[in-house]
Amino acid sequence: MRYLVTLRPLEPFMFGGDQTFGALGVKEAGSYLVKSRTFPQQTAILGMLKKELMTQAGVLTRKRKGEWVDKEKHTAAKALVGSEKFNMLSETLQDFGSIQNISPVFLMKQEQRYIKKVDSDSFPYVEGKLENYDPKNDIYDNFVSLDGAHPVSSEAIFKAVEQTGNKKGGEENSLFKKTSLLLKDGFTFAFYIDMETELKSALVTLGADRSSFMMQVKETTQALDYHDKNGYLTLLSDAYITLDIKEHARFAITSELSHRNLTNKKHVTKKNAFEKSDTLYLYEKGSVFIDPSDALIRHINNENLQQIGYNIYTIGEKK
Fold this sequence. Notes:
The longest helix is centred in the first third of the chain and has 16 residues, at 42-57. The chain is mostly beta strands. Strands 1, 5, 6, 7, 10, 13, 14 and 15 form an eight-stranded antiparallel beta sheet that branches. The chain has one domain (2-315). It has helices at residues 42-57, 74-81, 245-248, 294-300, 303-306, and strands at residues 2-9, 33-35, 61-63, 66-68, 99-102, 106-109, 112-116, 125-126, 129-130, 143-145, 158-166, 175-183, 187-195, 202-206, 211-219, 233-235, 249-253, 256-259, 280-283, 288-292, 313-315. A hairpin with a 2-residue loop joins strand 3 and strand 4. 28% of the residues are buried.
């Protein structure tokens, strides 16, 4: 079955990356100025889905002191969502049970679907440069419709919600400033998922602040079917690419994001210390590559990354 899943935030959200409030431990310190990213990481979507699927199937025990899968339900939970944490560097395809494929997160407003994409249509590439390009304009702040509507900027979609204060206890360096986000004017997050079990609409939590989202689910046959009219390779998702882009594309317009994830397991009876993976850098969704090499295309086609919505791209045909 394929579902269209929409996520409507019911309160301001904080989608994190590398930044975290306060001290994280001996090796590193957190930041006291933190701003939400505009999109949740695909790993966060996977984690939310696994938790909700186990909850709906009744294999996740949820009590005041924590959440866990009882021993007699381990087999059912493994069949449902697998037993592995996602590993960005895995060289083999990981098993997430009934979850077969998750698309990149995009935006919706009513029936209109929007993806982030460099505004290469307004500034065509000609003989090594972008015609009429003005560096004062953010070529990356561009969301195009897959369904015929006009492009929009982030200003029309996201509203900043700032909070400044003191952490409880008044310890040293306790001041903080946090900028969360809300979606404006009927926009929601959305993604497609292919899976072997039923998924129902529900209230879910997502993000660093465990913000509430109304998750609506309906069956669909749609897909992210964008094709660039110039024949450029366009990233529909964030992508982990380690090849030298200068050697494998004639021209590229890109942005990068840092990626880390928690590596330690949750404990019910003892306090967790936050342990994070090494920092990896991803090319941000919407990046454009002109005349990519065959080697670059083969490199992007990483089956393990693509199954949860990373390294998804499209190449249109020149008109």
